[in-house]
Amino acid sequence: MERRDIPKQKINKYAIRKSLRLFGLMPASDRWLLALGTLFLAITAGTALLFPDLLGRMVDAYTDVNKLQESAMAFLYLFIAQALFSFLRIGLYVRVAENLTAVLRNRLYKAVLLQNMDFFHQNRTGDLLSRFTADIGQIQDTFTSNLAMFLRQLMVILGGIVYLFFTSNTLSLYMLGTVPVVVIISLFFGRFIRKIGRQVQELTGNNSVIAEETFTGIQNVKAFTNEDYEMRRYGRDVEQLRKKSIFRGLMRGAFSSFIIVCLFGSIVWLIFLGLGMVRSGEMALGELISFMFFTGFIGGSIGGMAEQFVQIQKTLGAVERVLDLIEKPTERLNGHAGAPEVIAGSVAFDNVSFSYPGRPDYPVLENINLSVEAGKSLAIVGPSGAGKSTVINLLYRFYEPDQGQILLGGKPISDLDLYTLRSQLALVPQEILLFGGSIYENIQYGNPEAGKEAVIQAAKMANAHDFISAFPEGYETIVGDRGIKLSGGQRQRIAIARAMLRNPQLLILDEATSSLDTESEQQVQSALKTLMKDRTSIVIAHRLSTIRHADTIVVLKQGKIIEQGSHEMLMNMEDGYYRKMVERQQDHTDFINHHENP
């Protein structure tokens, strides 16, 4: 997945304090390893600072063979020490970073998974996934390399400046007055040019979008004779792109001129001053060479620190977003330690009213009173937006009612642990989501502890065993992303087998056959009949012909129950809403059958 651009966070006390809580997620052993790695980092920074000094001494000793050999051996020892301590530092930082990343991924996944349904409705899936990819990746990169580079460059700058003042106060003041200033100006100049570059990229993207829209909708363009309009629109965009691109080119040229004149000019000026001091005997030639190398180290470190500073700002923002999710209160599921309590399947809604949190002034359900005895079936019908699916959401406690209470087996569901409550239920929805594994794994999802025989028996009861066995891989057939390799009827029967394997006290069918053809519907209905036998069932129905035999039918309209009774009772109401719905569907079916079979 492509990593999105991460917004930066200002560095302040709050951001730093929150980021320091990451260290609380580390075991004590990892904190010691991080401290040891930082010590090795300081040693590598120190050995880097020895390089210009040794180079200067080698230059001064070029006439003395023995001193020249000593300098060469010192370089060898220096490189060996730097290589060794760099390897140890990298190894320790990587270990700590990967351990922390694993902890963050697990904690974040658990925190998101245990959020309530309103959280998932309020947050886009792409934004949540970016926490696992972009934000955690940013934190990982910072602990692996960015933090180390920032600290190393800071040590080199401070150590280099101290060395320069020991070498020559006068030349050091000249250097600090020119090179760092020029480098900092160059960084701001470069950032300005990158900003212009992003604008050019956006204009180029807009240019492509216009062309894509025009060519995709070419039939409309020609039908409305808007070729001239589209050419003018595209031309205006091209002109903006042309001007901005020219401006970017001029700025790049100015930046190059600035580097040549100011940065290189200041270095040459320092060399000129230094050579004058060498002639006057104020410093040795080797010291001047060391001085210039240190100057280069300092300038390069200042430039590198700017990029690392930006990365650290991004990391602070990433840490805040990740920790905000990890520390967000979750649903409480307390029953995983053992088998949940079995509760009788009777259901009652007692004067229940509800509005979704985002729309408190728009009631979805008002004063709902309904009940279904254990082993009986209840069908809920009504137009779209009547509140049918909301009844299911409240029963699962995805949301809490604003008023009233819901009883399961005579017990208020608000008093039940969520794990205990939801373990009594099984849902067969209209839109079946299968996971991308095998058919066997998707059925077993209803009860992960079930064995192979139980899975096969559930498939047979769901009328799914025959078509599964017909596949070359049988139950190990991979269903593809969201079950794309299976037909709608096959997906529905696997979902029914999954529900059967769960052996719920209460079965919920949410328009489970509304999107199927006639043949698939018959097979699914046969499987549902087996599943519903002697089991409390709540059915949300679109095709009214499928709920004729329900013990009770509830008609919802605009969040209120307007009719309730058996199919026969409701059909005997002359002006009843349910009767009109049945007659309209019957007329529609007769019309289709007449035209398909004239």
Offer a few descriptive terms.
about 600 residues, alpha/beta, ABC transporter transmembrane region fold, Rossmann fold, 4 domains, four-stranded antiparallel β-sheet, 10 strands, about 10% strand, disordered C terminus
Please provide a written account of the structure.
There is one protein chain. The protein is of the alpha/beta class and 598 residues long. It has four domains: 9-167 and 310-331, ABC transporter transmembrane region fold (Up-down Bundle); 169-282; 333-424 and 504-598, P-loop containing nucleotide triphosphate hydrolases (Rossmann fold), CATH 3.40.50; 431-494, no CATH class. 64% of the residues lie in helices and 9% in strands. It contains 19 helices and ten strands. It has helices spanning 13-20, 22-25, 28-60, 65-113, 117-122, 125-167, 169-216, 218-223, 227-279, 285-326, 388-395, 418-422, 439-444, 452-461, 465-470, 488-502, 518-532, 567-571, 577-596; strands spanning 347-354, 365-372, 377-381, 403-408, 411-412, 425-428, 506-510, 536-540, 552-557, 560-565. The strands form two sheets. The protein has a six-stranded mixed beta sheet, with helices on both faces. The protein has a four-stranded antiparallel beta sheet with strand order 2-1-4-5, with helices on one face.
